[in-house]
## 1
Amino acid sequence: MEGLHHDTIVDGEEDDSPAKKQDSPVEEELVGDVRIEDFSEKQINHSLAPEERVNLYEQMVRIRRFEERSLRSYQQGHIGGFLHLYIGQEAVAVGAVSVMGEDDHVITAYRDHGHALAVGMDMDECMAELYGKKTGCSKGKGGSMHFFAPDKNFWGGHGIVGGQTPLGLGIAYALKFNKKAGSCLCFMGDGATNQGPFYESLNLASLWNLPVVYVIENNGYSMGTAEARHSAGEPLARRGDMFDIDWSVSHGHDMYEVRHTINDALERAHNESRPSVLEIVTYRYRGHSVADPDQTYRSKEEIEEYKKSKDPINLYKEKLIAEGHLTEGSALEIDRLAKEEAEASAEFAQASPLPEPTELMDDIYWETDNPASKTSQGTMFFETP
Amino acid sequence: MATITYREALNQALSEEIERDDKVVLMGEEVAQFKGSYKVSEGMLEKFGSDRIIDTPISEAAFSGLAVGAAMMGMRPVVEFMFWSFCYVAFDQIFNNAANVRYMSGGLINVPIVFRGPANGGTNVGATHSHTPENFAANTPGIKVICPATPADAKGMLKSAIRDNDPVCVMENTILYNLQGEVPEEDDFIIPLGKANVVREGSDLSIIAHGKSVHTALEVAQTLDETHKVSAEVVDLRSIRPLDTETILSSVRKTNRVLLVEENKPFCGVDAQIAFLIQDQAFDYLDAPIKRVSAIDAPQAYSKSLENAQIPNHDRVLSKAMELI
Ligand SMILES: Cc1ncc(C[n+]2csc(CCOP(=O)(O)OP(=O)(O)O)c2C)c(N)n1
Ligand SMILES: [Mg+2]
C-alpha cells in the first residue's frame, strides 16, 4: 500500500486537526500499520436496531451484486460507454446515506451506482438506464454517469470531475434560503480535489455558512494517477483548513466509522449551518472504468491485500456475526437474494423497449415538454427527427 | 409610456420580479453594495435586503454552479456576469450543468435560471472583455438566448426570462445602458421570448440584426432612404433561441434581398445559421446572394480606431447594402 494514500492515521503519527480530535478513542486495535478505533459504541451506532444493522449489510451486498451483474452485461455487449464501478467503496455511500434525515440531500460524481441504490432507487430503473432503455431512470438519456432521483433527494450523477461541487453548494444554499435544517452531502473523488471550482466552493461554503458536506472518497487514484503523484500536501481534507472549515480523515472500510463521521458533519450542518470536508479513505477493486485494463499503475498484490484485510462488506459481516445479529447462513441468504434481484434487473432491462428517435427531442426544455404552458414563440429546434 | 434608459428598464424588470416571486434572487460580483458594476441594480439592496441582492466573491464557477443547484431545488436565481466575457471560467456550470441536467435526468429536473450581463465590444477594453458569446450559447440545446436592443425589450424580455422555467442567457450591452426609450407603463409589461420585431418597414431589402447592430442597421436604412431612395426593412431578432423564423422569412419573401448584420465573428456566428435558414426555406424568393456584415475576424482590438473598424459600423453596412441593390 506504500505511496497509495497519504494516510495520516498510521501508527505513531499525530494529527491535530480541529475536527479529528472530538472524541477520544473508545478502544483501539492495530490492524496492519493502521490504528483502528472502535466506533460501534458511538451513539449513532449504539442506537441501531438489529434489523437496521442487517439492513446496512444488505444494502452493501445489493450494490456489489448489482455492479457485478452490470459488469457481466457490459462484457456481453448490452451496456456501452463508461461503466465506473464502486466495488470496494460500498460502506461509504451506504453508511453516509443511512444517517441522513428528511431534508438532507445527495449529489455525486459519475461513480454513482452505489449512491443511487443507497438512496433507494431500484435496481430495475438503474440497470435499464445502463442498457439505454426507455424504462431507465433517465429514460436512457443519462447513462451510467448520470443517474437522478430528485424525489429521493438525489441530484445526480455528474460526469465532469469536480463539476458537481458548486451544485452541492447551491443545494445547501437553497435549503438555507428556505429555512430548512437540512444539508447537502456532496461526494467527490480524490482526483476531483484538484479542480478549481472546488476551492471557489469551499470559500463560499465557509463565507456564507452553508450546510454542505464535501465527502472526498479517497480511493487512492485519479484514473491511473496515484494520490502521491497527483496531490501536493497531505491529507487532502486539510485543504478545508485554509477556509476555516472543519475537516477530518476517516476509514471507509468501517461502516460504523463512516456513519459516525458523516453524522458529526450533518449535526454541524444542521445545528451550526457550517460546512465540512471529510476525507474517507477507501479503495476501488476494479479499473477506473471497465475500459481500464488496470495493468499499468498498481499491482495485483495491492488489490488482493486490500480485499483480504479491508473489504468493507466482509469486515462488517464479521462484526455483525460477532454482535450476534447475523449468521453465515443468513448472510448467504442475503447474498442469494441480492444476486436474484440483480439478475431480475438485467432481465427487466433486457426485455425493456429502447427509446424512439423522436424521444430525442423530449426533456430538453421544460417549455417544449409543457406545451399547454408555453409562453415563448419562435423556433426552438433547428433539426428534428 | 415613460421614457427611461435601458439600465433603468433592467432595474425595473429585476425589481418587479423580485417583488412578485420570493424565489427570485440577484447574485453576482458587486451587485449589492456597489449597486452593480454598471449600476443596473441601483437601490435594490436598500429595497430588498442582502438575502435577495447578493454580493459574491470573484468565483464565477462557484456562484454560477451554486445558482444552478439552487434552481434545481426550485429557486429562480438571476446571475449577473460583470461581463459575459467572464462566463468562460464558468462554462462548465452553464453549458454542462444548467443546459444538460434536465435532459440527463429524463425530464425529472428543470433549471429556472437567468444568466445576464453585457456582451459587447466597442468600449476600448480589448480582447478579454469584448466577447459576444450568443452564438456559443445558442449552439447548446437546453439554453435560451436573448439580445434585447431597446429599453422596452430589456424590460419586457428580462421579465419573461426570469419567469421562464428553463435557463435563459440574457446578453445586454454596455453601450446601450444609457439608451433612452419608451417603455409601456402597464402593470405587468411582458414581451415573450422568440418574437422578432420589424422595427422599420421597407420593400427593397431586409436588414436583419440583433443587439446593438439593430441601431446601426436603422441608421443605414435612414441613409439608404435619404440618399439612395432605397427602402430597407429592419428586423430586430431580439431572441436568438428560440428564433422567430417566420418573421425572418416573411420579410425575405417581401423584399427578396437580405443583409445580415451582427457583432459576432463570422465563423459560425448567429447569422451563419440564419443564412442557412433563408436559403433552405426561401431560396426561390432571393434575387441576390445573402450578404453579411460581422465583426472583422480578429480578436477584439484595443485601439479605438481599430475597434471602430472592426465592429460593424455605418459605412461598412452601407457599402454592403449597396452591393445588394
Ligand atoms: C473535467 C474533467 N477532466 C477529466 C475527466 C476524465 N476523468 C474522469 S474520472 C477521472 C479521474 C477522477 O478521479 P477521482 O476524482 O479520484 O474519482 P474516482 O474515479 O477515483 O472515483 C478523470 C481524469 C473528466 N470526466 N472531467
Ligand atoms: Mg479516486
## 2
Amino acid sequence: MKRKISILPKNSIEIGQVSFNNPIWVASGTFGYGTEAPELVDVEKLGAIVTKSITLHPREGNPPPRIVETSSGMINSIGLANIGVDKYIDEMLPIYKNVSTKIIMNVAGTDLMEYVEIIEKIESVSSDLVGFEINISCPNVKKGGMEFGVDNSMTAELTSELRKRTDRLLIMKLSPNVSDIVSIGMGAQDAGADAVSAINTVVGMSIDSNSGKSNIYTTYGGLSGPAIKPIGLAAVHKLYQKLSIPIIGIGGIVSSNDVMEYILAGASAVQIGTANYRDPGTGEGIIDELNQTVENSKWDSVKDMVGKAKLLS
Amino acid sequence: MIIEKTIIQSNNQIAENIWKMQFESPQIAEEYAGAGQFVNILPNDDWNHPLRRPMSIASVEDSTLSIIYKIFGDVTEALSKKKVGDAIELLGPIGNVFTKWDSNVFPILIGGGVGLAPILNLKDQCHVADIDYATIIGAKNSNEQFIDHDPENKIYLTTDDGSIGETGTVMVPLDKIITKIDNPHIYACGPEPMLKAIHDFALKNEIPTQLSVESYMGCGIGLCQGCVINKNNKAPKEHSYHEKYSLVCLDGPIYEAEDIYFA
Ligand SMILES: Cc1cc2nc3c(=O)[nH]c(=O)nc-3n(C[C@H](O)[C@H](O)[C@H](O)COP(=O)(O)O)c2cc1C
C-alpha cells in the first residue's frame, strides 16, 4: 500500500550534526532491521528508522508466550531476539547502502564491555549508519540484574565510554521504570549524549482470568501503545525542563495529534512503535497529516512549537 | 503480501458462536497460494484493541475470500456485528500452505474450535482434486457443529458431551481409523491441547503430520518477533537465533509435527 506525499523540508529537524527530513521516526523493535517493511510501505519518507536492539551475540529471546494485547496497548517480553552484531555487519549494513532513509542502530548489552565491543565493531567497518540509540533498559548481569537505566552513574559511565568511541549520533534511550528519569537524562547529557529518547516500555503484567495463568512467559513484560502515551508525555515534559540536548518522544503515538502533543511537551522528534504492527505505514501517513496540521496551525514549523505546551499553573 | 481495503459480502452465524464472513478481496485472492494461509484482520478503527487478528482463509473463489471465526472476545464480537457492504482492512495473504496431499497419500483432516477454516479449505481442495480422505471435527457440543456426522463418507464428528457424533476428543475416531488406512497423512488445526495430542500421536506412530499452529500475533509480518513456537532442536548453539524458536508468521503457520513441540 503506497501513499504519495510531498516532503515539506520546513519540518526538517536537526539532532547533533545530523538533519532529518522530518521528525517522524520508527521505534526500535517495531520495524525489524528496517529491511522488512519496504514491501508494504515507502520507508524512504520516514525521518529515520531505529533498528531493533542488536546484541554482541545472537539471541533467541524468551520462550512463548511473548506478547498479549491489553486495553489500548500490548505487553511484550521478546527478550531481545536478534541476529547479533557480526551478522548485522555482514548482512544488514550492505543493504543500508541502497536505502536513503537514515538508519539508527539500537544497541543492547548485559555489561558495559558488551556495549563497547558492539560500537567498536561497527566503527571498524564502513557504514551509512547515522547514529546509535542505546537501550539501557537491559538487566546488567554483572550488577545483579539491575538495569543500567535505573542508575544515573551507570548511565553516565556507559555514555562516556561510548562517546569516546564514536562521532556518530549517540542517543540514550531512557526507561520509565525509574524513580527519577530526569536525573538519568542529566547523567546521559553530562557524559556527552547528543540526545535522549523516552520512553521505553512500562513494566506490566497480564493474567487470563479464566485459566488463572499469566499471559506472558516471563510474568512481567513491557507495556506499549496508546495506554502509555500520558506516561511518555510527562517524561518528555520533565526532561525538557532540565535538559538542553534534544529529546525524542516515544510512547503510544498513532496520529499526528499525538505527535503534536509530544512536540509541545518538548520533543524534537518522535518514534512510532506499536502502531507499526497494525499498519507499518502509520509513520508515512502521519508525515502527511503532520504537514497539513502544521500548515493549518499558528506555527511556522515543527521546530517552532517544541516545548510550547501552555501550562495552567 | 498487501494491505487491502475489502468489502464484506456476507457475515452469517453457521453454528453456536461460529460465524462465516466473505470479502471481496481481489488483490489478496490473486496472491493466495493455498489452504493454510491466513489474513490479518483489523475489525476496529479505534485503538482499544491495537492489534490485528490472524484468521485462516477458509476459501477463495475468484475474488471472494472467506474466513470462519469463533466469538470469544470483544473483537470477534465486533466482527459479528459487521454488515454486508461494510469495508474492512485485510493484510495478507500470509504464511505457508499444507503440502504433500495428493493421491499417493490418504489425508486425515482434523479440525477443532477456531481451527476449522484451514481444514475445511483443505477438505474442499481434496474434494476437487478427487482425493480420498477422512475428516474429523471436534467440538464441545452439537450446537458448535455445522456439518453432518457421516461415518459412511468418512466424516467423523466428536463432541465433549456426546451430543453428536462420538463422545470425546478427535483422538477417538483417529485411533479407530488409523489402522485401516494405507499411507495416512494427518493435517490438523485447532486448540493447543488438541494439536499437542495429535503431535504426540503422530510422533509415536510415525505418521507424517502437518499442524497449523495458532499463536498470539503482534504484526503478522515478522516485525515484532512475538509469535514464536518451540522448535524441536535438541542441540541449539550456545548463541543462536531462530534455532530454538520459529516465527509462526514468517515460517509457519504450518509445521511438520517433528519440527516443533508444545511445552
Ligand atoms: C514487541 C516490542 C519489541 C520492542 N523491542 C525493543 C528493542 O529491541 N529495543 C528497544 O530499545 N525498544 C524496544 N521496544 C520499545 C519500543 O521501541 C518503544 O520504546 C515502546 O514500544 C513505546 O512506544 P509505542 O507505545 O509507540 O510502542 C519494543 C517494543 C515492542 C512493543
